Amino acid sequence: MATLKKYDLAGKEVGKVQIDDALLDISAHSQSVKDYIVAIRNNARQWSANTKRRSEVNHTGRKPHPQKGQGRSRQGDLAAPHYKGGAVVWGPRPKFDVNTRINRKERKAAIRFLIAEKIKADKVHVLHKDGMKEPKTKKMAEFLDKLELRERRILMLGGPSNEATQGNLAKSLRNIPKKEFLPLSQINGYELVRSQEIVVLESALEELISILG
Question: E strands along the chain, which residues?
Answer without folding.
Answer: 2-7, 13-19, 124-127, 154-158, 179-183, 197-201
